[in-house]
Amino acid sequence: MTAARALTAASLLLVAALVAGCGPASSSGEATAEPEGAKETPADMSAKDKLAAYAPVRLTTDLAALSENDRKMLPLLIEAAQAMDEVFWLQAFGPKDPFLSAIGDADLRRYAEINYGPWDRLDGDKPFVPGYGAKPDAAQFYPADMTKEEFEKAIAGDKKKAEAFKSEYTRIVRKDGALAAVPYHEAWPEQTQRAAAKLREAAALASDKGLKKYLELRARALETSDFRASDRAWLDMKDNVVDVVVGPIETYEDKLFGYKAAHEAYVLVKDQEWSKRLAKYAAMLPELQKGLPVEAAYKKEVPGTDSDLNAYDVVYYAGDCNAGSKTIAINLPNDETIQLEKGTRRLQLKNAMRAKFDTILVPIANLLIAEDQRKNITFDAFFADVMFHEVAHGLGIKKTIDGKRTVRDALKEQAGALEEGKADILGLHMITKLHEKGDLSDVSLEDAYTTFLAGIFRSVRWGASNAHAQANLSRFHFFQREGAFTRDEATGTYRVDMPKMRAAMDKLSAQILKFQGDGDYDGVVRFMDELGKMDPALQADLDRVGKAGIPKDIVFEQGVEVLGLQPAAATK
């Protein structure tokens, strides 16, 4: 989802300024928030004005601490990431070059490039390129003319076929008129093979044995669409400074079922000092699981104890994580079996986090938070909120309490937004418990709760198609109903009620965990339908944020040239 090294505003311009997010959610028009930004982002807004919603950010880091071979690895990893970027274009829209070359206006073309297609990811996926209609829920993971009913009928009574069709790593196509599942490595072979080759070149340079093993196994995984061995190797790495997350990861782009993972990549450099400071929190998961405010059946699973928590600078984003809103923290792998077996790694992208805080959160808070509570908007609290969001993904339940299904399978396209909502609220619950135990003394609860509320305003601006925005919108209205905050009509500012916020946090935590444990798809739909819609007062406040010129997110200046490195070809 406890603070990163402070950066001055001047150094941010030289280092990085990012904005986060996770990914799209919802599908089929059922129980989604009404499109956010309808007023904040007018339909007649020029492409140049739309671009202003993204603050430019330069992605770099201190390379002096890296060995010569580590520096040589980075261009190779960036080239592997670029291959993932190409695949994501094909998954989200289709061929990139003919589409972009047909757009004559340079600003509109750049905006389409940022959005990986003609649909505005920060404005409810509204089309902004003339000639395009609504964004298809199926993206390019399924045939355009396939219905949900046809999919379900094709797998009825055939367990093996159902597993292949529901796999995160297959594309559904038509063969001789019938639906068929094609493994990813066969669906996009050229990009897959190119990325695998670059990972192997990087592995040959790796001095860290764990990194070398992971890169070799990940290359093989891309070629076979079998990722478990490489996921385990990635979890086993402890001492590597350079890191890469590469392949099909998140399922948000699939809004039809939420089954299919989209390709992406992050190239990362670990901050050793900060990582040492964060290491203690991952070990507390089993104890925190026991203290969740829900009946025992909904917390019976034991989180893996091999979880890892580290801080990084990101030097390259590609594919899904680079589309629209940008990620500032990672919790992987998503495989429920491996999570229970070994835990996860949580990567805090601190250069991105710091920039997001300074560029977006503070200006929003200065506009919408009660003046006397603005002192409680701190970077330490923001870092903690984001960090424990990611840690909290490991809490709760991965399988329904009847043991028959995973939560993801039971909740289908609703699973993504609800999981993000769970991580948000359980992250705040963890902060509360750790603070009470004296294990988180550098963040006050007043700071954590107030910064958390300000973060809701930041996230709901990403639009109804975004899982984080959807989760935040429903939580905003839940908190409103429970009296966790009040709004001053005269000033248009919000004030946190600390005791009521605490009570609402526990109540919402229990509700979400029950939805997941019960696999209650219909209950989640009703919940989102009731609480996940934009109301006039909130929309008016978001309009004020937009008129103030506060960016919604960021766009990157990145690559080997930005890092001051030689291209990979020159390193061979």
Key phrases:
single chain; 572 residues; 5-stranded mixed β-sheet; two-stranded parallel ribbon
What's the short story on this structure?
The chain has 24 helices and 13 strands. The chain has helices spanning 9-14, 47-51, 68-92, 96-101, 106-115, 148-155, 159-166, 184-187, 189-205, 209-224, 228-236, 272-282, 285-290, 336-342, 350-368, 379-392, 407-411, 415-437, 445-460, 467-482, 498-518, 521-531, 536-547, 560-563, and strands at 54-58, 119-120, 126-127, 170-175, 178-183, 242-248, 263-270, 308-319, 329-332, 345-349, 485-488, 493-496, 553-557.
Structural topology:
Elements (H helix, E strand, L loop, with lengths): L8 H6 L32 H5 L2 E5 L9 H25 L3 H6 L4 H10 L3 E2 L5 E2 L20 H8 L3 H8 L3 E6 L2 E6 H4 L1 H17 L3 H16 L3 H9 L5 E7 L14 E8 L1 H11 L2 H6 L17 E12 L9 E4 L3 H7 L2 E5 H19 L10 H14 L14 H5 L3 H23 L7 H16 L6 H16 L2 E4 L4 E4 L1 H21 L2 H11 L4 H12 L5 E5 L2 H4 L9
Parallel strand pairs: 1-13, 8-10
Antiparallel strand pairs: 2-3, 4-5, 6-7, 7-8, 9-10, 11-12
